[in-house]
Amino acid sequence: RLLETDSKSLRSVNGSRRNSGSSLVSSSSASSNLSHLEEDSWILWGRIVNEWEDVRKKKEKQVKELVRKGIPHHFRAIVWQLLCSAQSMPIKDQYSELLKMTSPCEKLIRRDIARTYPEHDFFKEKDSLGQEVLFNVMKAYSLVDREVGYCQGSAFIVGLLLMQMPEEEAFCVFVKLMQDYRLRELFKPSMAELGLCMYQFECMIQEHLPELYVHFQSQSFHTSMYASSWFLTIFLTTFPLPIATRIFDIFMSEGLEIVFRVGLAVLQMNQAELLQLDMEGMLQHFQKVIPHQFDSGPDKLIQASYQVKYNAKKMKK
What we know:
The N terminus is likely disordered. Among the domains are: 90 residues, Helicase, Ruva Protein, domain 3 (Orthogonal Bundle); 118 residues, Ypt/Rab-GAP domain of gyp1p, domain 3 (Cyclin A, domain 1, Orthogonal Bundle), CATH 1.10.472. By secondary structure, it is mainly alpha-helical. It contains 20 helices and no strands.
């Protein structure tokens, strides 16, 4: 609400540009025009957040489309919590108690924390605040869910949440993601769900990119060699953060389907090169080339992933 009144007062200062007859393009320069666009998206998201229950019921499709365009940075924390219904969870009150307990996974968690976002300022220093809160959330979760405990890879997801919100909120969102977004199944010790995702994804390749499928088979290039981390970290270990975060926005809104879509889009875009390479060359291509293909921005990738034909019924079958 503050944001809204703020931008309303801004508007009266600028003279009502709505009535200037030139909609967004006023006589001012392109740069202030950009800030008008930003201002509009702020007002829009401010409204969505304020009237969430109503908007979610009545305008689900519009919200999905807006999320695909990217949630403005300052709204991410609250919108992610709203998308997965994590804002009023009773488990939040247990968080400080959990931190006083000891978890059998503590050694493992400590060992992995230094490897999580080693380049990121918030996490790179030993014993920094980032490493401390990451340890806390991972430890608390390992105590709440003894079967899964701690699983490598999940720290990347928690780390991303901590870049947006305080640790108690990040903990609640993570609990929700594990429960409602298939992540808990993916991280179970047997990893059977990951095997299922690999199988489903392979079937998609066979159907949509038969030539590439045959090439992968002839090179004994298994889907799990390149795609496991896509599913376990929702591309957070594949692409630079600005791109992975945009994919994560959509994941929060639509679930794992986006991982299948983006994965297939990436293969489509790289099919010609991959067909020329042997197994070693393909591994190099996935590690060195693909991560930087969308550095200029994720829009091209997201558009391509919505051209992918995804048949939910078939996937279920």
